[in-house]
Amino acid sequence: MYVFLLMVSRFINRVSGARHDHEPPSFYGGIIADPMGLGKTLAMITLVASDSYFMVQSEDSSFSGVLGEESCGLTLIVVPPALLGMWDEELMRHTEPRRLPWRLHHGKNRLRHISELANTTIVLTTYHTVSTEWRTEAARKSSMLFATRWRRVILDEAHFIRNRDSKMAKAVCALDSVSRWAVTGTPIQNHLNDLATLLKFLNAHPYNEKRVFDADISHMWKAGNAEEAVKRLKRLAGCLLLRRPRKTVELPPRRDLACHIELQPDERELCNQIRAQTISQIDQVLLQGSQKQGATSSFSVLQQIVGMSLTLTVASRAYLMEPSWNPTIEDQALARIHRMGQEKEVTTVRFYVKDSFEEVSRHHPL
């Protein structure tokens, strides 16, 4: 991220152009932002396996750079709970028996002491587990996660920590490691701050500090100088983010269809009644300034669940029953079947109700 000028012994920030007299701190790792379905999980498994390869190939223990940093030598992988089984399956599928032994640190299977890490290469845990063990100082002192300096920490679905002020983000950033990798197909979902949180996790100096990120990029964007802000954002991404196009791998063809639904008069009347009731409830909440706990009994999370790194290549047809304001959510959901391992032509069908907000969301996504 910095260029060293030998003649004047100064360092230049390649993103902003600012010059510094002192060498900036190094960081190791980055963001893997390949589109869904291109094998990000396999890439991370390969990265972990490369550690053993280099250690075996070299008899010289005086490594430089990341290999020379002192650590326990193990990789901690943090995932949403729903993906623990998927990681277990991928490790069994792509590694030889006992070559990359792994342990689960979650629920009843939590590891209680560092000694339990013997003969282990990978530890799998969840965001909730990390957050729970960070919550209090007493919990941190007794936690194996925070008592260990990891060789590497990998966040799968790293956008889970996009809220910088959340306990989850603070807990994950408090982990001690030599290198850090954020794996997500959507490093920016709605706001530039989504990326800023990932930079904090990576310790990507100086942009691990939000004030620097805001000063060099966010404020410039908000001030109307979007062109320069985009240039800086691209330069920053070029230093630490890898995103390869879908054409990198050969996938079966995919047909995207739109199905417009015409409501019957009685259905339209019912929808109008529900809309009027919903607007009235929203107005009441706005007037009251709050909502009673438990007042909302249900909500739809189908696309968010499907949007995680689940592999559903056994299917070749996908039906989206309702549109999303955020098109990346739909892309993630559809990538569950149109990805590496799919051998059939894929057909996707999006349903829209004519003359409704669904048509608006289709033509004017966020």
UniProtKB/TrEMBL annotation:
Residues 1-17 form the signal peptide. Transmembrane segments: none annotated. Pfam families: SNF2-rel_dom. Keywords: ATP-binding, Hydrolase, Nucleotide-binding, Signal. Residues 21-205 form the Helicase ATP-binding domain. The keyword Kinase does not apply. SUPFAM superfamilies: P-loop containing nucleoside triphosphate hydrolases. One of its GO terms (cellular component) is nucleus. It comes from the Eukaryota. GO terms for biological process: DNA repair. CDD domains: DEXDc_SHPRH-like, SF2_C_SNF. InterPro entries: Helicase_ATP-bd (IPR014001), P-loop_NTPase (IPR027417), SNF2-like_sf (IPR038718), SNF2/RAD54-like_C (IPR049730), SNF2_N (IPR000330), SNF2_RAD54_helicase_TF (IPR050628). GO terms for molecular function: ATP binding; ATP-dependent activity, acting on DNA; hydrolase activity. This is WD domain-containing protein. It comes from Colletotrichum kahawae (Coffee berry disease fungus).
